[in-house]
Amino acid sequence: MGRTLGLLGDEWTLLIVQQALQGVGRFGQLMSALPISNSVLTSRLNLLVREGLLRRHIYQTNPLRAEYVVTDRSRALWPFMLAIWEWERRWVPGHAEQLPTMHHEACGHDFAPVLSCGACGKAVEAKDIDGDWGPSGSWERSVPESVTRRRSDSDSARSSAGLFPETMMVYGNRWASALLGAAFRGVTRFSDFEANLGAPPTLVAERLRAFVAIDVLVATQNAQRPDWAEYRLTEKGRAFYPVIAASLQWGQEWFRAPEGPAIVQHHRACGESFEATFRCDECHEVLTGHDITIVGRSDRTIAGEEDR
Fold first, then answer.
1. I need a labelling partner for 292 at 20 to 30 A (CA). Which of 10, 62, 277, 278 fits?
2. Rounded CA separation 230/20 (Å)
3. Does residue 43 sit within a domain?
4. What is the pLDDT of residues 78-118, one digit of tens each?
């Protein structure tokens, strides 16, 4: 889990993978598409190749030219990206108008993804799932690996211009993603966040302030100790669970430890092991990456005008 959070909890990783999934794979194309320096792009591409999310393909030998293409490992991130899109669409004011429309080819409708149990098919929320550490799970092993240099919030704000601004605040920092995971596991007090994550207190305070500012957490007073602040998930924060579930499932599949899974989850309603699946809210069938098309708003507008 530390390896997964270290990769997905980095804004540049997500931005580069997002571009690669759309077919932008040449170095110059990525430089033009992203507000990124030459050295940072080079280091992230090397990392993504090393971790199996991209493959370097030589398409010209004289002079040498290469492009970076997606692998099965990066293509498997589509549920994670879809969950991010849905959360931003519903919970970030003003950003929904900028996002493209997702169309389900199987039923012919625009859709919203619904997180569901793979065993019984029912829609689920965080409160419906019981989870505990598995054979390879612990707080220590869930601390994100420092696979990239930590960047300042001002740098993060600039880099997130091409993707999802509030998601980058919640997940585009390796400690932020770990702190949110702790909140979903019931941690509420500052000292407990600090102790469980092993993070510097200044960093914990910075992340908590940022989460409160965007209404993902709310600070409340402890009933027995008014001098203690407790940080609890808001409705908006709880709605981020599909993103967490998708990232956990991806990590468990592609970075499984030899001794077994890091987290074991069960769906309370049916009692089966929880496997996160996403269903179409229109036809209720399980979504697959092949059945989803992205329709830009400008394309939809033009199509509508042509129909008229």
1. 10
2. 40
3. no
4. 999 899 999 999 998 877 777 888 999 999 999 999 999 99
Q: What pLDDT, in 10s, does the model give residues 37-75?
A: 999 999 999 999 999 999 999 988 888 788 999 999 999
Residues 6+ apart with CB under 8 A from 163: 11, 14, 15, 18
Write the CATH number for 193. 1.10.10.10
Nearest to 249 by CA among 289, 286, 276, 287: 276
Residue 123, token pair as written in the block: 């829609």
307 in any annotated domain: no
- The helix (H) or strand (E) run that includes residue 169 is helix 165-171
E-state strands within 44-97 = 54-61, 64-70
Burial status of residue 53 (CB atoms within 10 A of its CB: 0-12, 13-18, 19 or more): buried
End-to-end CA distance of the chain: 51
Q: Which residue(s) pair with 57 in the sheet?
A: 67
